[in-house]
Amino acid sequence: MSERIIDFKKMDGLVPAIAQDSLSGKVLMQGYMNEEALAKTKESGMVTFFSRSKNRLWTKGETSGNFMELVSIAVDCDGDSILVKANPRGPVCHTGADTCFDEVNDSKTGFIDQLRAIIKDRKNNPTDKSYTASLFAKGINKVAQKVGEEAVEIVIEAKDDNKELFMGEAADLLYHYLVLLEAKGYELDEVMEVLIDRHQKK
């Protein structure tokens, strides 16, 4: 959680709490928290708000079963709003929609950033049990070779009609590609900049 202090006195003991999907980055909903709701969220690991209509603590999903598992909490620069990153266990809105803003929330690509952070940590803090660390230890040639091997394997699987095998090779290729970028000291964002630049020139 952020080290910033939350000023609960600003709004009579309540502060806005924005819930965001930790993987997709989608804003799920906005509620309010008091000190007790925040404490229960951190203690239980399930996002809990203060319901102004019910005048009590309300854990998201207590009725529907669609809980939101806490990932992290951050406080804004003025100390008067909270950003909660969570993993939703189902539709968030009471209408049955994925989010309270009626947006589809089925993307998992945000996990790539988490995976990149793990890969960077394995490079900077290697352990004997880490396959990723072992790749870095073998040097750039071995990492590049693995990307080449996985590229060939996905091409082979693409010619068949076995989704499970193809997806497995696709995951292997993506993972080793991210390791190669880290081994070279480049960021995926730099690759995105190249793609964005190409798109804008069309």
Automatic annotation (TrEMBL):
Task: Tell me which GO cellular component terms the UniProt record holds.
Answer: cytoplasm
What are the start and end residues of every segment in region (Phosphoribosyl-AMP cyclohydrolase)? 1-111
Q: Which family does it belong to?
A: In the C-terminal section; belongs to the PRA-PH family. In the N-terminal section; belongs to the PRA-CH family.
Q: Where in the cell is it found?
A: Cytoplasm
Tell me, what is an example of a GO biological process annotation in this record? L-histidine biosynthetic process
Keyword Nucleotide-binding in the entry? The reply is yes
Quote the InterPro entries the UniProt record gives.
His_synth_HisIE, HisE, PRib-ATP_PPHydrolase-like, PRib_AMP_CycHydrolase_dom, PRib_AMP_CycHydrolase_sf
Q: Pathway, according to UniProt?
A: Amino-acid biosynthesis; L-histidine biosynthesis; L-histidine from 5-phospho-alpha-D-ribose 1-diphosphate: step 3/9; Amino-acid biosynthesis; L-histidine biosynthesis; L-histidine from 5-phospho-alpha-D-ribose 1-diphosphate: step 2/9
Primary gene name? hisI
Q: Give the GO molecular function terms.
A: ATP binding; phosphoribosyl-AMP cyclohydrolase activity; phosphoribosyl-ATP diphosphatase activity
Q: What is its EC number?
A: 3.5.4.19, 3.6.1.31
Alphabetic keyword roster: Amino-acid biosynthesis, ATP-binding, Cytoplasm, Histidine biosynthesis, Hydrolase, Multifunctional enzyme, Nucleotide-binding
Q: Where are the transmembrane segments?
A: none
Which residue intervals define the domain Phosphoribosyl-AMP cyclohydrolase in the entry?
Answer: 29-101
Name of the protein in its database record: Histidine biosynthesis bifunctional protein HisIE
